């Protein structure tokens, strides 16, 4: 347990329970890295690499942390499916009582395939098609989070054609700066997301007057990997002003959805704890009588996942040293896309190895194909295993087949037990469905 830095602490260990002993679910035993009670070295032998490994105990604990943080107000956790959408993860969360935040028909079908409760799903996303809206209404989702005037009209038309009343919530854009990477800031006026505050009231009137819509709530989601509570507080306060105005207008809402976005420690960040975030939400919403919906993704699964990879070789250029591994940007795109930091450690014991400053790179033909740049890493050997931490959210979910690389296997661990919850993609699967069309020469 002695040979790891703060990055292997999952989110709750950062601040939520001061003074309480850290409980990590990616631990070292005699120097060797385990996922719960499963040896990652043995797992790699059985399943191969690269492989995503998820800890059931960690997911469970994070879910309960968010749940407890909101204790005292009626609330529903709608896990953001896009963070990690494996059926085993969705099923686990469903069994824990979670609802779901979905952004596509594919995600709705995943929730249903996992046995999740579609009536506890909220449908977000800036461009819903007619067929997606119809399917969501047929599935009885809790509500559609509406992103624009055009979408409101589209939903009304689809609901009218089906002869139903669509439950709607307007996603408003509170224009606050979440102080995060620009690709994951979504609550600024210039972003494509949400309805501008000044336009929301008129749209609520329109929705309330329709025979084919039912106004149920309001929502906002200002971004991701947010480390402080201030942006959340600012956004919620603005949304509550709107709620009060609507009440004066005779439109009463049932719920406020404050979105997701709470950050986690990847490196030495000190994100607000779920507890503090929950207190902030509760203190603002208390007394409004509103049911609270939250849409956490990263905070639930981010530090519950590890990408297991093997060193293929090493390479030196002038003063640059590269460690080439069998996981690449197609498997984990966060470093390339967001300049994201993921802690990387050898799976084997490494206490007495010298540190080398290296780039950890994959085999893909792109200079953006790196998992770490200028990173001090214990000296590694060819064929040894490395663990890439914090890979549970936006890891496998964003994986692609670029360079015709089969996507990694996924494994769920619980105690000493483990199961492959998605086998490694086969080579044949890479071109499944493709056709060599004969259109003449
Ligand atoms: C991505 C997303 C979330 C989840 O964000 P996290 O940062 O993973 O908590 C929640 N709600 C909406 C609308 C999203 O797009």
Describe the structure.
The chain is of the alpha/beta class and 441 residues long. The protein has 2 domains: 26-55 and 302-430, Lyase, Ornithine Decarboxylase, Chain A, domain 1 (Beta Barrel); 124-295, Alanine racemase (TIM Barrel, Alpha-Beta Barrel), CATH 3.20.20.10. 29% of the residues lie in helices and 25% in strands. It has 13 helices and 21 strands. It is globular and about 70 Å long. The termini are far apart. The protein binds pyridoxal-5'-phosphate (PLP).
Summarize the model shown.
This protein has 441 residues and is an alpha/beta fold. Helices cover 29% and strands 25% of the residues.
Low-confidence stretches: 1-23
Bound molecules: pyridoxal-5'-phosphate
H/I helix tally: 13
* CATH homologous superfamily heading of the largest domain: Alanine racemase
| Largest beta-sheet details | 9 strands, mixed
Number of strands: 21
